[in-house]
Amino acid sequence: MSAFPANSPVPKLCFSDISGPSVESDLASLRMALQLEQRALKAIVTELLKNPAAKEPLFKLIAGACRLNQVRQQQYFPINETQRLFYSLDPQRSEPPSSMPTASSDGFMINLTATLLHLCEPFMAPNSPHAAKIDASYLLSTHRLALETETRLCATADEALYWLQPSNADLRRRYVEKKIEAGEEPEAEGMPALAVSTSFGTISEYFFLTMRLMHLGILSALSVFGELARNAHMTKNEQELRETELQRLRLMGSGAPSALVAQMQAEVARYSQMNEAISRFLLCYQAQLLDPSLLSLSLRYYRLVSRWLVATANPPPEGLPLPHDVPRLFAALPEFCLDDVANFLKHLTNFAPQVLEQLQPDELHDYVTLMVTFIASPRYVKNPYLRATFTKLLRFLVPRSEDSEGRGSHGSERLAAIFHTHALAKKHLAPALMQFFVDIEFTGSHSAHDKYEFRHEMTQILEYLWTLPEYHAAMVGFTRETASFVRFINMLINDSIYSMDEALTKLASIHKTQLEMADEARWNSQGRQQVHQRLQTLQQEETYARYFMQFTNEVQHMMKYLSSEPEVAPVFMLPELAGRIASMLNYFLVQLVGANSKQLKVKNPEKYLFNPAKLLLTVCTVIIHFAPLPEFGQAVVKDDRSFDPSNMRKALKVLSQKMSIPHESLEVLDAFCAKCVALKQQGEEEEAELGEVPEEFLCEITMEIMEEPTLLPSGKVVDRKNICRHLLSDETDPYSRQRLTVEMLTPDHDMKARIAAFRASRKKAAAGSSNQPMELG
């Protein structure tokens, strides 16, 4: 029995009136019928397993179902299935490739998975002694499942093969070659083979067959549901665009071609019918796939998987750090073991957050242990995007704050209690997230959007953790690891500038479009296709503007609270950071109060999370935090591109008029502005005093006189702060492209002495010149 819409009468029979009050009762009735069928199926399977003659054939049947449904784990399976469902509604679409000959139905896979989940129930409890019987080598054997081609958690295919057969000379040679290519040390010969059992107990059979069925059944169906929901949203947008166009045509009255009006009415009706049918499809998925009892049982199962994974990593009694050498058995596990836990939790936060809300905080303990352990242990999970997926649930556990509009679903304060009681998280979570914020930058071929999405999650988590004393202390402790924290701040600066640029560019374009739309006669004079296209573009720009403005607000808020800490603020003023911080803040002032700021005056700015006065207050608060530090003023005035004291004065005026800000803070900002004016004048006088600087004293990167001349392995001499800034994003020599680290830099003491002598001689010459009596003509 199945409620899924493919080739089924369920959508129309069970959900005839999707707008009426009976939808919830229809869902409940359908779920009850499905549960009865699944209980009957479980009873049949349980009886078969009691029969020795039937047990082995039944396990083979289940394993065969897994092998024959490998197509369900492919990346394009959800897309193809969604296209197939849409094609059944709208044959005008191109027919998608069919996966039916090689894939079982969602109904079959979900019912089979539910049955296996029930078989695992007796050993799901945290204190169950039976869980100790789970044999991890099951996944490395060919006993039931063919998993040789699966990606491993942190071992290559060559490593896994060699570990299983270390006496094979060809495998040894290939293994050594790959290790040398990767710049790693191969294991010595003579290591024992990775032990794989030849037979497995019933507990292992239940546990791992369920794991595979969850991967190919429930998780695959959840991906289809997500793709269907995404396409439903797009189709709804298409309907709204056509309704807008129809309204425009009707406003034209008799001037609108009747044929065009009729055509648009037909399209609106077509999309309306399609959206109604899609809504029924989604309800069918919700009935069976999002059944709370099924999801709760799945949560209990994955809690067991979480405990098993952490135990297989062989942690020390205190939990972290994990051993430097990754246990070979853990390294060779298929990646889906961990990835499935992450994806299931992600799907729950998106589609069924109420199921997570029903958990007690202590029921989250094993999940948080898993997440902290592997976010903090990149050597154990080579795929950073797998680790990053855990940020979805961690962000969900952060309670909604007054500034969290548009940030997705959040759990309640009750669930957030886990942060107060989890000892491992208190010590390791915040530093691990701050390090991972940097690591995600260097993750290969995934899109920039993914990187920002994960950082968006992390900024929200860190913002909340900053308010908790033990996490606050851990974050301050991370700043003492200077090299790591400098990289973290460098990424914050990069993200701030990029997200601000993206948001303001989109806002300026929205402003322009809104002005054009205000002239209705001129706007309506455009052709129908042009209006439709421009409205689509406007929708996209509004989405992007909101997304990047949200991220801008979050990152600037992080700058604000980090810089408020007396121990942390001076780290921002290290030579390789001070100039970048100053340039960023100057640039933001230009954007918010400069000459072009009028282009950002859009209608309903709150729709885009754009509150310019509030953002200006955040930026100026960061300036106020840094104002007492002598390095900051010097860095601000050296920014020739964006520094303008008039922008600070405008900011003072805006803040005093529109924001509630202490008078003392305004005085600090005013005094800093005056200090910058004086420093700028002093700098110009010193520059004039130096006159023409010999080229050998100039940094080859910035062509400015060097303060800390540094010799590179390539033979070039540059200023230390400039090369260190370059190395934060790219650990190569900019001239030879060879690998370069800070440790490989050599101070050029002779050059520094010569520059000092040059400065002294010019200063002396200038002083002598100023002491000469003025000749009277």
Write the layout of secondary structure elements.
Elements (H helix, E strand, L loop, with lengths): L9 H5 L8 H28 L1 H17 L8 H13 L16 H15 L36 H8 L4 H13 L20 H15 L1 H34 L6 H32 L2 H21 L15 H4 L4 H16 L1 H5 L7 H11 L8 H14 L15 H9 L1 H17 L8 H18 L3 H11 L2 H37 L1 H5 L3 H36 L5 H4 L2 H19 L18 H15 L3 H8 L7 H14 L4 H28 L18 E3 L5 E3 H8 L18 E2 L1 H23 L6
Antiparallel strand pairs: 1-2, 1-3
Helix pairs in contact: 2-3, 2-5, 2-10, 3-8, 4-9, 5-8, 5-11, 6-7, 8-9, 9-10, 9-13, 11-13, 11-15, 13-16, 15-16, 15-18, 16-19, 18-19, 18-20, 18-21, 19-23, 21-23, 21-25, 23-26, 25-26, 25-27, 25-28, 26-28, 26-29, 27-29, 28-29
GO molecular function: ubiquitin-ubiquitin ligase activity
Pathway: Protein modification; protein ubiquitination
Pfam families: U-box, Ufd2P_core
Helical residue percent? Answer: 55-70%
Please compute the radius of gyration using only Cα atoms.
Answer: 32 Å
Q: What does the average pLDDT come to?
A: 92
What is the number of E strands? 3
Structural class: mainly alpha
* Residue share in β-strands: under 5%
Q: Which blocks of ≥5 consecutive residues have pLDDT under 50?
A: none
Number of helices: 31
What kind of sheet is the major sheet?
3 strands, antiparallel
EC number: 2.3.2.27
Organism: Coccolithus braarudii
Main location: cytoplasm
Pathway: Protein modification; protein ubiquitination
